[in-house]
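Hi R.,

Here's the chain you asked about this morning:
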Amino acid sequence: MGKVKGIKLLLVDDEPHILQFLELGLVNEGYEVRTSTDGMSAVMIAEDFQPHLVILDIMMPGMDGFEVCRMLKHNNAQIAIIMLTAKDEVGDRIKGLTLGADDYMIKPFSFDELLARIGARIRNQFPFLLGEVVYGPFRTDDRRKEITYAGTVLELSPTEYELLRFMVMNHGIVLSKPAILDKVWGYDFQGEENIVEVYIRSLREKLKDKEHQLIRTIRGSGYRMDFS
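And the predicted structure, written out as C-alpha cells:
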C-alpha cells in the first residue's frame, strides 16, 4: 500500500527486534501502530486500542497466538488477523484459519509482501478507510475510480484503471501475465494473454513512458512498475 491514515495496527511478537523493525516500517507507511510482546497484554491493548488489523505471532510463551486469535475474534468479529509462524506447518495454518485468522505468513517474510497482505485485508474488510492512497507519484482514489499521476488525473477506461491500480499497488514486484489476467480480468477470462500487452502499451502512452522506465518489461517474466 501507499501512505495511509486512520488505520490502526497491533503487532504481537515476543521478539523485540522484529517488533521494532515492523513498527518503524509500518509507522513510516502512515499506520497508527501499537505493539505487544505477550498474548495477555495483546488482548488488553486490543480492547482499548480497537485495532483494525492484528499481526500475530503464533509461538509465544504463556498464551500462544491461537488463543489470542480466538479471544480477539470473540471480542470483535470484524478485526482482521494475519498470523505469523517460523515454520510451514499445514496443521498450524488450518488451526489458525479455523479460529478466525484471515491470512497466514511464514517467517522470514519480505516487508513488501506483508504490506501487500495488510492492504488486501484492509480493502476487503474496511474499504471505507482507504479513500485516497498515495504511492510515490501516484494517488489512487477507489471511491472516485481515479488515478492521479504527478498531479494530473489520468483518463482511464475501467480496465485500464484496474490494471494500473494493481501495478501501482505492487510496484517493485514482477507481475506475470497470468497473475495480471487473474487479478484484472478474472480467473474465468478465456481470451489471449496478449491483451495484457495491448493495455500496457496504452498505459505507457498515457503515462508518457516512452522509454519504459516506469513500466518495465522483464523478459520472460512479466512487468514491473518502478518508481521511488
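The longest strand covers residues 80-85.

Let me know if you need anything else.
M.
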